[in-house]
Amino acid sequence: MNSSNNYRMENDPLGNIMIPSSAYYGSQTQRAVENFQISGIRLPRSFIKAQGIIKASAATANMELGTLSPEMGKAIIKASEEVTEGIWDEHFVVDVYQAGAGTSQNMNANEVIANRASEIIGGSQRIHPNDHVNMSQSTNDTFPSALNIAAVETISQRLLPALSQLQQELQKKADQFMPVLKSGRTHLHDAVPIRLGQEFSGFAETIHTVYQQMEAKLDALYEIGLGGNAIGTKVDLQPDYTPKVIQEVCNRTNLPFRQPGNIFAFMQNMSEPIRCMLTLKELAIHLIKITSDLRLLSSGPRTGLAEITLPSVQPGSTIMPGKVNPAILEMTHMVCCQIIGYETAIATAGMASQLEINVMMPVIAHTFLHSIDLLTNAIQTLVTKCISGIQSNDEICKKWMEESLSLVTGLSSKMGYDIASQIGMKADEENKTLKQVLLEKGLLTEEINKAIDPRGMV
């Protein structure tokens, strides 16, 4: 019933409510919009796509089982596929911080698909968001399943390729820089020599290890609880619904989703997002270490270590002309700080599981999926705008290495620790090189000279 050109009135168990006339969503979504004007943040495209996949798969299974007419089923499938493609994203309007468990988000999908399917089918029948689109489903099984589908697709198609690219680029730099000798450093003080390529090989292997951990964690996300219904008891479901709907999801994604080993454990907990987020946190910690090292190694260019040069991507100061900062490394560090905070948010939300369900699923979904996107985008930018363009400053590396007092380590096996220490301390006090002190003491033999040759220490 139209009250104006801009709004239509709908009725639900709570009474009448006005909805924008152009909106495909309905009364429950509108109530959520009015109740939860919190952040303006919506669940991402990947999640909405997964909702469309689930609704199309459920309609297909219900048609095959004879509980949904072919005419209605085909209209729901077409509307759901349009949701999967992103055609109706602007009609998914519920804030992330909404009613617990994601009921509003599920109803947003149900109402958009129902209204669009009714439009497709024409005036012969009205497709109901609960009775038809949500048939054989509950928010409690579809929401965590949509999260897992979205996470699997995003991790496998975006994050893992980005990690692989980063590892390969770091290894390429390791190979390129292997001939470059330099001073190692522990406690930010001089240590025995190392190859610049060896440093970079450590970075590369660290990323490779996280890649393997993320790949292993991915397997558990293939468990989706469709058919669990409200609490896992499969109330009012046809016996063959669960295998049929999951197989249809597999068909539509070309991914090996499967039933959980225990449906009640799946319904009660958000275990896999929690575990995967721990790996993302570890990745963030390693990226902070790597980017911090690169900032130190590139510090200067005149008053720092300056052993490597980063690509210049933008001016670094509003007051100091010509200054260029490690902007990409700083951005990556900021993203990683956010990820570490996000892991805490998911951990505390995970503690909110009570009895048969975790009602914090919307914030877990947003935080987890946003973390994957943030890290993917940051890593891709890090590779293309920083790592691939790093150059070594061979002469500066050589200079610091030759001036390093840690070369005295090579004397320990020849003169003993105490005498070697005295020589090192004298060189430091008098601001001389080890060779100068050894020469003054008449100790610089061919054997001793060879002992403090950096090339013999790497």
From TrEMBL:
Keyword annotations from UniProtKB, A to Z: Lyase
User: What Pfam families does the entry give?
Assistant: FumaraseC_C, Lyase_1
Q: Which Gene3D superfamilies match?
A: Fumarase/aspartase (C-terminal domain), Fumarase/aspartase (Central domain), Fumarase/aspartase (N-terminal domain)
Q: Which InterPro entries match?
A: Aspartate_Ammonia-Lyase, Fumarase/histidase_N, Fumarase_C_C, Fumarate_lyase_CS, Fumarate_lyase_fam, Fumarate_lyase_N, L-Aspartase-like
Keyword check for Glycosyltransferase, yes or no. no
Report domain Fumarase C C-terminal positions: 407-458
Domain Fumarate lyase N-terminal residue range list = 16-341
Asked whether the UniProt record includes Lyase among its keywords, one would answer yes
Quote the protein name from its UniProt record: Class II fumarate hydratase
Q: Where does this protein come from, organism-wise?
A: Bacillus seohaeanensis
